[in-house]
Amino acid sequence: MPCVGDWLNNPLSIVRGLFAQNVPNSDWEKKVTEYFKEKLKENNATNWVPSLNDVPVHYLKPNSLVKFRCMVQDMFDPEFYMGVYETVDSNTNARVLHFGKYRDVAECGPQQEIDLNSSQTVTLERQTFYCVPVPGESAWVKEISFFASQARVSPSTSYTPSRHKRSYEEDEDMDQHPSKQKEQHMGNNSGSDIHGCVEPKRLETEAPAGHNLISPNCSPPLDLNFPLPGEKGPACLVKVYESWESFKVNDVLEVYGILSVDPVLSIVNNEERDSSTLDPMECMDTAEEQRVHSPPASLVPRIHVILAQKLQHINPLLPACLKEEESKTCEFVSNFMSELSPVRAELLGFLTHALLGDSLAAEYLILHLISTVYARRDVLPLGKFTVNLSGCPRNSIFTEHIYRIIQQLVPASHLLQMTVESMNRSRFIPHKDYAANRLVSGVLQLASNTSLVVDETQLEQGQLDTTGVHNVTALGNLITWQKVDYDFNYHRMEFPCNINVLITSEGRSLLPSDCQVHLQPQIIPPNMEEYMSSLLTAVLPSVLNKFRIYLSLLRLLDYSISDEVTKAVEEDFVEMRKNDPESITADDLHKTLLVARFLSLSAGQTTLSRERWLRAKQLEALRKARLQQQCVNGNEL
Amino acid sequence: MSSPASTPSRRRGKRDRGSNPSTPQDARSPPSQKRRADDSTSTGDLQPMPTSPPAEVQSPGAGDALFSSPPQFRHSAIPLDFDISSPLTYGTPSSRVEGTPRSGVRGTPVRQRPDLGSARKARQVDLHSDGLAEDIVATDQSLGQKLVIWGTDVNVASCKEKFQRFLQRFIDPLDKEDEDIGLDLNEPRYMQRLQEINVVGEPFLNVNCDHLRSFDENLYRQLICYPQEVIPTFDMAANEIFFDRYPDSILEHQIQVRPYNALKTRNMRSLNPEDIDQLITISGMVIRSSQLIPEMQEAFFKCQVCAFTTRVEIDRGRIAEPSVCKNCNTTHSMALIHNRSMFSDKQMIKLQESPEDMPAGQTPHTVVLFAHNDLVDKVQPGDRVNVTGIYRAVPIRVNPRVSSVKSVYRTHIDVIHYRKTDSKRLHGVDEETEQKMFTEERVKILKELSKKADIYERLSLALAPSIYEHEDIKKGILLQLFGGSRKDFTHTGRGNFRAEINILLCGDPGTSKSQLLQYVYNLVPRGQYTSGKGSSAVGLTAYVMKDPETRQLVLQTGALVLSDNGICCIDEFDKMNESTRSVLHEVMEQQTLSIAKAGIICQLNARTSILAAANPIESQWNPKKTTIENIQLPHTLLSRFDLIFLMLDPRDEAYDRRLARHLVSLYYQSEEKMEEEYMDMAILRDYIAYARSYVNPRLSEEASQALIEAYVDMRKIGSGRGMVSAYPRQLESLIRLAEAHAKVRFSEKVEIIDVEEAKRLHREALKQSATDPRTGIVDISILTTGMSATARKRKEELAQALRKLIQSKGKTPSLKYQQLFDDLRAQSDTAVTKEMFEEALRALADDDFLTVTGKIVRLL
């Protein structure tokens, strides 16, 4: 009987047990997933599973159960593997059946040899995803989820919470603490004697493999292909065994699986490279491709997925899945809904302060932050709400601070400084590198509901070169159609996305936007820096958390318009057109409807009421008046 | 030692593994037997093959050795050199006996087929007398029938016989392929092919698997499941027939049969472990090809001591180095002599899924191909190809010297046949390859749809449902998507008639013109989307580039050429600069693009429909001006558009109300509901693709009559007022529209209703775009000459009035500009604007009546 900790520390032994019980029929696979599903359903069991997001790879036990919250950055080709294979003992001729699922290397004892011709062999297929941590994930998301699991980090790991700060440093500190590492492994081994045949070898080879990574004789440091520059965290090769067709590039997943950092994988790598001159069959992958597709396991660990689910959001303050009709989530939602309006008022006040006392802009900012593409009508994305905040003070740190505040509120965000230089130099669109056979990421490869803040105030006059033009066009396409055309060299491919873009600029932005709000600062703080940072420190963490829940939750609500209100809106539109056919177009109706939608949602209402519609019209009128005023002023100047 | 070319695991894995993974047929056969078969090198006594004594029938292992290697006993007919070098020596018909009069075959060496793999090589044994073999084949025919190749249900003799029958008898007069030029379709197709081989000397026989399937389902299944065994048998059969017929023919090597178009797999994504070791056909795009890899087939060793030489063949990817010299018994004295060893060509190619096959939101899959011998360098990166080959999976060894194995297989395809799908695009016969594969059910659905009476309305509703109303515009675009029938008048010197319909949308900004364009671009498989502002003439047409590495000039094609047979959507047409627009003249009428640049002079096909959108010059459409004046496009270009639509913001309450309701519904309807309401985009796409490739309507008698009448009517309207209101171009447009409408109905005949709709649509578009704002009369000359007839008349009158005015002033050499203007205004009974006045002055200046210098008008 496997004890409680076994499914966490040594899931393979569970699998082995289930395999042995159920062979030769093939439903052992189903049994395995069911078993783990049950285990994870238990009270807070998910928190017991160490997460690769929080704990550095070298503190995790190899072959233990881990979880990983990540975005699918690239998909590799499916691979065929030995699902079931047979080994023959060279001395006794005893034949043993093994399973190859959830493993990288076919296990086989020192005296055993794999019988490649066995009739028992079953070939199966699995898919590999290259996953990176969610790009632009806010620090608070990491922190909160870290502390959630922290309390119960499994005692068998020698990992101590105090070392958290170091955790994101790469494998360098592995070298500094080789003894610690060994110790750790020794500890691990004692628990799992079944692994005896593989483990000794592992121990011998681990250290040199680590050295190789940094030593100069090895190829240049591995590019982990993060979409955003300066990102940290582990990238993972996630091996998916079931229904991989349902996952798409840029999906955010949470996977539970078996961590595999078998150093043999890295050795395979090195050896193959050395012998590639000898072996034409092996060189069918170029060196680059090899590096990308089988990087050293210590840098890019493998996870053999037992359970995987798409995440609707990555906000750890919310229950993971809101669509499920569980009483717990319902309760959570209704509880929060009851105190919605004070939260909204508080948030509005907070953002008004952040926007230098402009409450209209703050109102629009809330609408922007809860906007999401909820449907696509043929090519037209519905529900995107790109706001252009014009009239921002130039050359000040204003945008940066706005970004910092947004970062505190949303789970994932990125600040894009638009300068001629950065436009010309960086690569926004992901493109396929055929030599390495991978999708090289770009800034615009972001997960759904990421907030992208574009700072146009820094833009100076200058010439854009080809890359620059491409980048600006891509950004424009992203805003208008909510899609990015990935460059596959011989053709382009469209990837729909759902990114909230906020543009800050002095005048009207050169990028398209759904709505331009001209900022009218009421207060000019003498010291912007101080003002802004005091603003953030003044907010209580509990209030901040409420803001976070508010913004993430409202995005997921459904919305409808009753027939009555539809009629009223119709009447209204016809009336407006009658009075002033020049200035009211279908486009305006679109915008007002959008504003009305998000306005209703922001108040927690899932249907449009007449009052909200009027309020939306009022807001739009205010906004337009401001723009017109701005125009007049501009002309006078 | 393993030679450089050796591949430690491949051969073995290829053959052996094949049986293991889930290929159901193979599962029956215990692997131990297979191993025995492989080892049969030593069992020389199995040799006299098909002729084997009845006793052996009972032993499957032996039977395998016999029948799976039928070619081996034919060696004697071949010069020794070839004999040894070619391990897979099938192909020479077994009836070739020494001394037969038909000795031509002896000049034709066999050539091994690395594409099929050569696991059987190991079983090769020394030659036996053929004569004996033949006799027994003849006598033991009945016995032979029962023998099958080990692990399969293939009987060599019957398989061969069936295939020969297929070659000799297969006729399908209806199935026309583009390679079939010069074939008499009522004669056995493949016999003609063999004749061709005799003439041309290219010893490859391409066999369409579809033909084979319709001829003999079972044989086809065998081919798909056991290509490695069946194809050599086919080779044998083909060669037998060939050398029977053309005994004196000498080929480079023996004929190799290359099946293609296997139906097993079409899409790379659907490859799965079941396909391993089967014959598959997949389509994709070549993304990378490797250097040529010489693969050692036979090593040449020489003893360092006594200079004794020996040859060793590759065996399952390895060369066994002789450790002892047979001659002098020195150990480890044998050295490999590279330049006397035999190598074969091999190339690694990466194939990527074609973009159309990919599900949205996923990255394309790739698969590795190995091309051998003459297939090396047949394709370049960027080519779209259909590949037929055998799917292989090989285990990866962690370390060649260690027995542990990574649990992952490496997969690749050994290429047997390539078929490029887009190379013909430049030649213009691409309909055949363009055809999407429609399943029968799909075709049935489409045909049913086409029978609906309101299919035209239905389709136009399905088009861009998010864009409100503008039904006529949608209908116009729908007809554009279908296109007319292509007519060839080359023999009468007029070249091809354009079948594509060009449409211009102009109107107020914010009337979702761009959205419509974007929709069309997304709908059609070969669409291009450009913006007038951002495109240059070069980007639209083609440009010549110098490759920095090879210093070679390369022709890069632009949007127009890329959208050949598709639709080129050009947004902000008015913002396009003059020189860029001028390129369109040729494209829009002649449907070709001429390039004369950097020493490259050529004419490319650009049979593209153009869907353009233009904004009015004054940002808002001025209803008081003509179309030309509003969008400022040259009339030469405008007249090339079949339909010009105005997308105006109608100031109409009822419209507003409907629009509002439509928009509001967008904001709360769930996605599922939307799907239900409208025809799915995929169906629409298939419907159009099907109509485009299969329906080719011709004008019926009545329809032609109706068209003539319509045209005459149009001419008449104008002639009443002394102007021409229709030109032959308009008639051509009408024909195209009528044809397109017939295509919508899947009708092979253009009938009256088609003409009626074409007339209606054409009139509708004219009404919108060619109405003279001053008179309210539809006036085609606005589009053809850029000015309405009345405007032209008025201009002339004004010039005459001015002339009279000046003449009435008597003999003054010069006049003040402003004064003259005032005088004219005073005299004229209609308002004269400054522009009109200037125009009149210019007209007079053209007549050499006066010159204008600054503010002074001088008489001449």
Automatic annotation (TrEMBL), chain A:
A GO molecular-function descriptor: chromatin binding
Record-level GO cellular component terms? nucleus
Q: What is this protein called?
A: Mini-chromosome maintenance complex-binding protein
What domain of life? Eukaryota
Which family is it part of? Belongs to the MCMBP family.
Q: Where is this region: Disordered?
A: 154-196
Residue ranges under compositional bias (Basic and acidic residues)? 175-185
Keyword Nucleus listed: yes
Give the species: Grallaria varia
Question: What is its subcellular localisation?
Answer: Nucleus
Task: Name the major location.
Answer: nucleus
Question: What are the GO BP annotations of this UniProt entry?
Answer: DNA-templated DNA replication
Write down the Pfam families for this protein, in alphabetical order.
Answer: MCM_bind
Question: Which UniProt keyword terms apply here?
Answer: Nucleus
Q: Which InterPro entries match?
A: MCM_complex-bd
TrEMBL record, chain B:
Whether ATP-binding counts among this entry's keywords is yes
Any idea where this protein resides? Nucleus
Key words, A-Z = ATP-binding, Cell cycle, DNA replication, DNA-binding, Helicase, Hydrolase, Nucleotide-binding, Nucleus
Has UniProt tagged this entry with the keyword DNA-binding?
Answer: yes
Positions of the MCM C-terminal AAA(+) ATPase domain: 455-663
A Pfam family (short name) is MCM_lid
Picking any one GO biological process from the record gives: double-strand break repair via break-induced replication
Supply one GO molecular-function term: single-stranded DNA binding
Residue ranges annotated as compositionally biased, kind Polar residues, are 19-32
GO cellular component terms, A-Z: MCM complex; nucleus
Which InterPro entries does the annotation name? AAA+_ATPase, MCM, MCM_4, MCM_CS, MCM_dom, MCM_lid, MCM_N, MCM_OB
Q: What is its EC number?
A: 3.6.4.12
Look at the named UniProt entry and state the broad enzyme category this protein falls under: hydrolase
* Region described as Disordered: 1-74, 89-123
Coiled-coil intervals? none
| Catalytic reaction list | ATP + H2O = ADP + phosphate + H(+)
- Principal place of residence: nucleus
The domain of life is Eukaryota
Summarize subunit and interaction data from the UniProt record for this chain.
Component of the MCM2-7 complex.
Q: What does this protein do?
A: Acts as a component of the MCM2-7 complex (MCM complex) which is the replicative helicase essential for 'once per cell cycle' DNA replication initiation and elongation in eukaryotic cells. Core component of CDC45-MCM-GINS (CMG) helicase, the molecular machine that unwinds template DNA during replication, and around which the replisome is built. Acts as component of the MCM2-7 complex (MCM complex) which is the replicative helicase essential for 'once per cell cycle' DNA replication initiation and elongation in eukaryotic cells. The active ATPase sites in the MCM2-7 ring are formed through the interaction surfaces of two neighboring subunits such that a critical structure of a conserved arginine finger motif is provided in trans relative to the ATP-binding site of the Walker A box of the adjacent subunit. The six ATPase active sites, however, are likely to contribute differentially to the complex helicase activity.
Per the similarity annotation, which family is this? Belongs to the MCM family.
Name of the molecule in the record: DNA replication licensing factor MCM4
